[in-house]
Amino acid sequence: MDTPSHPLDDFFRKVGPFTGTQAIYRSFELSCVAAKSGGDWLLLCGKAVLTTDPPPSESRLSRLVDFDDLQVISGRLKPEDFAGLVDNLKEGWVVRGFHKSLNVRLMPEGPGNFVWQLSGVRPSGTNRWKNEIAVNGFGGTVSSLLYSPSWHDIDDRLRENKDNNFDGLNGLFKFLRLKTARDLLSVTFFGISAELPARFKAVDYNRKSRVLDVEVERVGRPTLKVEWTPPGGELITIQDPFPDAPDTGQCRYSIPAQDDSTEAKLLLSFAGLGVANTLQCSINRKSTLLQVAESFDPNQQRLNDRLFNETDPRANAFELAVARLLSTSGYAVLWFGRGSKDALPDIVAHWRSPIGEDYFILAECTHVDPIRKLTDLVNRRNRLSEECGVTADRWLTVVFSRDEAIPRDIDAATAHGVVLCGGNGLRDLVKQVTSGASPSELYEGLRKQQGSIPLPIPGLGY
């Protein structure tokens, strides 16, 4: 019967080929918190993280905290030292040999009582990459190293420490990005992780050329796969998607869409490591909402009448037509109208892109004289930004009008960062939506209107 391999060996077999100055993982961060027990320093908690950051000129560890009963060690090391860390951990050490007085054991009984588990791929703890691969080890109870009164004393000393001032142990753990808190630290642990450095920056279906335009940020050369639905069930590998691109940075690739497919599932992965990022994207040939609208309103005659012909002193017909225009394209629309209280806008529309970015359209509607709407619209944008926690640059502010914008209005709108959409611009937008424009295409159509300074959607190439 074969002896089970050590989880640390399994982890190293996965990441080892990707370590080195010319590979994906070019350095790693090491940090640990240790308590004094007899003549030894014993691990309380710690971690090592393989990263794509450039290697240091030399591997270096330093003491962030140096108390008689507590030490905190942290530093950045070269990737060639990672194999030594794995060997140390298997032999019951976290830090050994860097300095004669800088040694930390896993636990006094040796490595046999420290249990390791390979957790595989999980969500990353960083903002840049989506996933990581990890292995975690757990040892004895923390109470056997430090009693409760000692925690309170250490909290006070950390806050008073002049060299490195931390807000107690919780502040220290947060600084080290250790996923624990003082009250939750019941057993000693050490975690090792390696980020999977590839993610989708943007994906959009181009209806004219019938391709998926994919923008990827990555380090190294991940595998790109796609599954079309229908038929579904098969991931197709895209052969050499980034042939001329450098090994680090952003690059774009176009994938011809399969006939009759309505959705694409995209996947980035590294062979032997795991899945770095996945994404689903609709193939928007003609949306269901547009088909319903055409069924009840052939040739969109009622829509065009309300936008360009009917006179309604309350302006509701025009506002509702604009709301329908936005919703038909795929936006979720709130219409407040003239009867709303507290100076709410006429319309708020929201769309979440395939990569999870939120976009908002804040709109006012008027038959004539759009310039009178600018100040109120900007004030409402700022108010909603503050109350909803959405930054101002996520709001595309638009004044919809039947009138064509004149140069004076364009200059004023530009100064306020507002889109003016009226006259021929509004007619062009109607043509876009009634021909099946996606939310991103509608956004881009508004973005091209004179007087606009909106937020660009990543990946549209503008």
Commentary on this structure:
- It is a single chain.
- The chain has eleven helices and 21 strands.
- With 462 residues, it is of the alpha+beta class.
- The strands form five sheets. A seven-stranded mixed β-sheet has the order 3-4-1-2-9-8-7, with helices on one face. A five-stranded mixed β-sheet has the order 17-18-19-20-21, sandwiched between helices.
- Helix 6 crosses helix 7.
- Residues 451-462 have low confidence and may be disordered.
State the gist of this model.
By secondary structure, the chain is α+β, with helices and mostly antiparallel strands. It is built from 11 helices and 21 strands.
Q: Give the class from helix and strand content and strand pairing.
A: alpha+beta
State the major sheet: 7 strands, mixed
- Whole-number count of domains: 3
Instruction: Determine the number of helices (DSSP H or I, runs of at least 4 residues).
Output: 11
Strand order of the main beta sheet, please? 3-4-1-2-9-8-7
Q: What sort of overall outline do the alpha carbons produce when their principal axes are compared? A: elongated
Unreliable stretches covering 5 or more consecutive residues: 451-462
Helical content stands at: 10-25%
Mean pLDDT over all positions:
84
Strand content: 25-35%
| DSSP summary, beta strand count | 21
Q: Report the C-alpha radius of gyration, rounded.
A: 29 Å
- First-residue to last-residue Cα separation: 61 Å
